[in-house]
Write a structure and sequence with these properties.
The chain has 20 helices and no strands. By secondary structure, the chain is mainly α. It has 2 domains: 364 residues, Growth Hormone, Chain: A; 55 residues. The longest helix is centred in the N-terminal third of the chain and has 33 residues.
């Protein structure tokens, strides 16, 4: 449900803009704010789980997520729409951040040392499938019930997940005590200022004093955060794991691949809606080649890893296919015909899907059992942060390329929509270079 909601809004941005009188920058920021809130607060969710217990934390997160989702669906048109939706999406991300760590903690607590890493890897693969199905479901919901149903559907889903957690028989008493404040505030502030500053480049301009001040402050805070986390005996995020190359490289790849993945899903939907003039349901269906290839790549990743016993094929091979797919997609976009997008989408989807579960396996195989939870939380944080950075970068490019008159009308030009998708190319190219530093043998779960 959490990852599904990150992409389900991709095909409803245009009808939201038209129905509520929003600009392009306003509706695209809704994707960014959710991902940024989730990335910034995932580690805080871990602290809440320890302090209040898994079940209580999950209940509160599910309730917050459901209420915030309903608030998005009830957004009023006019001047109040933007602050209303920004606040609701922030709270939705916060609710998601409280639920996600429960899954990690539950898996780590239920499974033994030999099974734990495999279970966490399977969890990552299943989550990936729901992540890519978002636009298709969003198109169907919008076509049948209207764009507001994309948010209202989370009410029964939140209730269902709360019911399931009740019957999961989770054990473990909360540790109690107070929640630390300094580290969470620093991390949230640093990430928010940096990512929002990156996004505002497309509105204010790169050299604008406001942009420079926002980015500079964010980067300085981020540097301070890393220093504090490295020295802390109980850090909010186990950034010390990044000192080890075997862990740092797959973590960096997770960040870069998620950035590219969220870009192609969200801006692929924007392209199909604004440039090829497809309806919401047809745009969702138009993305089927991309999301199906992503799902296939994700499913095949473990098989390919076991078959070759090396990360080179699923990671390096997958990223190579993704880069070739981006090149084919760039050629297909020039036609403005949905059918010509399919070859590129297939290549990009398959190539991005192949490395994801393998990288999770490599990460879990590079740390001891005592660090499984810390590594999983750090991976999840960097994954969500990568998506936020990708969307911020692509959004800035779209806003800088799109004429102001179209931006105000909630419409994206063909050149701006194309530019948004192509931003994924550099992320994939950098990932391909970084992947050459991976160990050739696959990481395996270790007992200690």
């Amino acid at each position: 449900m959490v990852l599904f909601d990150q992409t389900v809004v991709a095909v409803v941005l245009e009808p939201m803009a038209q129905g509520l009188g929003l600009t392009v920058s306003s509706v695209q920021r809704l994707v960014l704010i959710y991902g940024l809130s989730l990335a910034s607060l995932t580690a805080v969710g871990v602290l809440a789980t320890r302090r209040f217990g898994m079940v209580r934390t999950f209940y509160f997160g599910a309730a917050l997520f459901g209420v915030a989702s309903a608030s998005c669906g009830l957004a009023p048109p006019g001047l109040a729409a933007q602050p209303f939706l920004d606040s609701a999406r922030t709270l939705q991300g916060a609710g998601a951040a409280l639920m996600l760590p429960v899954a990690t903690s539950a898996i780590s607590g239920i499974y033994g040392e030999r099974e734990r890493a495999r279970a966490l890897t399977l969890y990552a693969g299943v989550a990936q499938i729901f992540f890519v199905l978002g636009p298709v479901a969003g198109g169907l919901l919008t076509h049948t019930l209207g764009w507001r149903s994309v948010f209202f559907v989370n009410l029964p889903l939140s209730a269902a997940t709360a019911w399931m957690i009740t019957h999961s028989r989770l054990h473990g008493a909360p540790a109690g005590g107070s929640l630390p404040v300094r580290q969470p505030l620093l991390v949230v502030s640093a990430l928010a200022l940096t990512v929002l500053g990156l996004y505002q480049c497309g509105i204010w301009g790169v050299t604008d004093p406001k942009t420079v001040a926002l980015l500079t402050t964010g980067i300085l805070l981020l540097t301070l955060c890393v220093g504090i986390l490295l020295r802390s005996p109980c850090p909010l995020l186990e950034v010390r794991l990044l000192r080890v190359r075997a862990t740092a490289v797959p973590m960096a790849l997770t960040f870069l691949i998620q950035a590219a993945q969220l870009i192609v899903i969200v801006h692929g939907a924007v392209y199909l809606r604004h440039v090829t003039n497809l309806s919401a349901v047809r745009a969702g269906a138009g993305l089927l080649s991309l999301v199906a290839a992503l799902a296939i790549g994700t499913s095949l990743s473990g098989y390919v890893l076991d078959l070759f016993g090396s990360v080179t094929v699923p990671v390096l091979g997958g990223l190579g296919i993704a880069c070739l797919g981006m090149a084919a997609w760039a050629v297909g976009m020039r036609t403005h015909d949905a059918l010509w997008q399919v070859p590129g989408m297939l290549g990009v989807g398959l190539g991005i899907g192949l490395p994801v579960p393998t990288l999770s396996s490599v990460i879990m195989g590079s740390v001891g059992a005592a660090n499984y939870t810390g590594a999983s939380v750090l991976r999840q944080t960097l994954r969500q942060l990568g998506g936020a950075v990708g969307i911020a970068t692509a959004g800035a490019v779209v806003l800088a390329t799109n004429p102001q008159s179209l931006n105000a009308a909630g419409v994206v030009s063909a050149s701006a929509a194309e530019a948004g998708i192509l931003v994924a190319g550099p992320f994939l190219a950098i990932a391909l270079l970084v992947a050459t530093a991976l160990p050739t043998r696959a990481g395996r779960p270790r007992a200690g």
